[in-house]
Amino acid sequence: MGLKHKITKTGVDFAFRRTVDITPSFLKKHGIKGLVLDVDNTLTTHDNPVPAEGIPSWLDDMRKNGIKLIILSNNHDERVRRFAAPLGLDYVCDGGKPLKRGYIAAMKKMGLSAQETAAVGDQLFTDVWGANHSRIRMIFVQPMEPEPRSKRFIRFKRVLEKPFLPNKFVDDKKE
Question: Does the CA dihedral 97-99-100-104 come out positive or negative?
Fold first, then answer.
């Protein structure tokens, strides 16, 4: 991790191009038993109640391999519940990312320690900061699509995070 990442707490442990490229074997190799999952632009597009293509089967594969899963979102209960319930996922809403409290609640619900947990998300100033401050490993994924015009604040943050984005991805190499 470079100095700018250490100073700004924007370092990631691993980066993948897409969430569905993360494999159970990769997680097990790194001692990861549970994932704290972001929703928007990680599992689906913004405000979409339907998971992106491949996400339901990816979740099933994770479960079959004993990986615990939980959603942590800054969205309100109605949005998160509508998305999580059909997928059979537990969740923590109004998570306050990048604060630690949502991550701690998610780990408690999964019954896992920080050493056994990783977060998966697409934003540096919420997902990455939160994981780093909570001392859990961070798996960065590229956003599924650019934010719509209505998400002006997120679009602004995307400009600020550009210099800190990972440029090497695990899935560029064959495991």
Answer: negative
CA distance 38 to 122: 8
Q: Enter the pTM of the model.
A: 0.89
- The set of residues, in sequence order, having a beta carbon less than 8 Å from that of 122 and lying 6+ positions away, is 38, 41, 42, 140, 141, 142, 143, 144
**Stretch 39-63: mean pLDDT:** 94
Look at the alpha carbons of 94, 98, 99, 104 in this order and tell me if their dihedral is positive or negative.
Answer: positive
Residue 139 φ then ψ, to 5°: -110, 105
pLDDT above 90 covers what percent of the chain? 70
Indicate the CATH number for domain 8-170: 3.40.50.1000
Locate the DSSP E strands across the chain: 14-16, 34-37, 68-72, 90-92, 117-121, 137-141
Domain boundaries, the chain: 8-170
Query: Which residues lie closer than 8 Å to 59 by C-beta, 6 or more apart?
Result: 51, 69, 87, 89
| Share in percent of the chain as helix, strand, coil (round to 5) | 45, 15, 40
Q: CA-based angle 120:122:126, to the nearest 5?
A: 90
- Identify the bridge partners of residue 40 per DSSP, sorted by sequence position: 44
Q: pLDDT for 76-96, tens place per residue?
A: 999 999 999 999 999 999 999
pLDDT(160) > 50? yes
